[in-house]
Amino acid sequence: MAVAWDDVGNASSILQLLGVDAFGLASMITQAALTARRNRDACLQLAEHVRVVEGLLRRLQTLPRLRRHPETRRPLEQLDDALRRAYLLVRSCGQELELRSYLYQLLTGAHTAARLLAAEEEIDRYIRLIPMIGLVATVGVEVTQEVLELDGEDSTLSQDHVLLPGVEEFQIIGEPKPGFTLRVCGFPINGTKLCIFQWVRYLDDGTRQSIEGATMYDYVVTADDVDTLLAVQYTPMDDDGLQGELVTSFANGKSKIACDSDMQSEINACISNKEALYNVFILNADSWELATVMLRRTGYQIKAKMSDELIIEEEYSQMLQTKIPNGRTTQFVLVSSGGVNLAFNTCGITEPNTEDYDVRLRDLIVLTMRAFQKKALRLELDAEEEGES
Description:
Pfam families: DUF7046, IG_AIR9, MCAfunc
Number of helices: 10
CATH architecture of the largest domain: Roll
Helix content: 25-40%
Strand content: 15-25%
Distance between the termini: 82 Å
Order of helices and strands: HHHHHHHHEEEEEEEHEEEEEEEH
Radius of gyration: 26 Å
């Protein structure tokens, strides 16, 4: 199918990519987006969309028979072509200006953004045509009898035997660390059309904690997940409402979630120095006001930055809590020992400023405060035990 953006690149560029499969092209698009100099946000959005279906594209490598059958070969070839054009378009956004002056003028501004969106939409169309379903897109595709036979699956079932909806090769992809997004993918079977998701945490005492609002196929790991076992529970369902078995799948190989080594080093340095100071925004009435959070060995202090007014100061206690909302957000809530709720935001604080850095700062503040709190309570308990002895 010819599209409005297929004049990017030339015939030789397309030919050079003919030997690259769909999964390889998806990886190349991701790498090219990271080096984009123009329309970077649109390129990253396209790359993110391709990553969502990356598990499905990997599956194509293991099903060579699909390309031998006329009903399935054509849409797969068209998908390959769409991915090639998408790669050339994203790559062109990273070309040096002096080498690509004409192309630069052609693909700037809204025109390039529209072409990137067209690329994303075309890839979507072909994903919906191939005989498989991407859970990350919650799109159902009826698999034809011919494809089932090519895959060696027996579709003749006795009338009294009902196969429950299910998912094969279910997996959680993504970096299991604070600030990163996890996504689920797999291959629905037995008429599965949708899945009911619930992300959960398993605490040290064995209790299971459902994460409020975390009911989608993707989940942003936060400081709340550190030192817990993170998992997703899902129930597959068909169009008639028939449900399969509830399945639990753990992230990080069923190991506890941990922050990255750099963040842990920063936390350790603060504990060693016995203090930490952070700039944040605090919600005052209906507006965000710049403030400072001072963490010390025995307690914490929060002051308004401009007026130097003391907002709260207290020692650490068991009642002190920090809460993080679900989703990709830079906000968190501190519940003081006296039950006072204080809302904070790190949006726009970091330099150089990016959303990723702001989210990271939020998690760093929360984890550092919890580390100080844990250490203070441990010292207090040790002192009590020593006094009793």
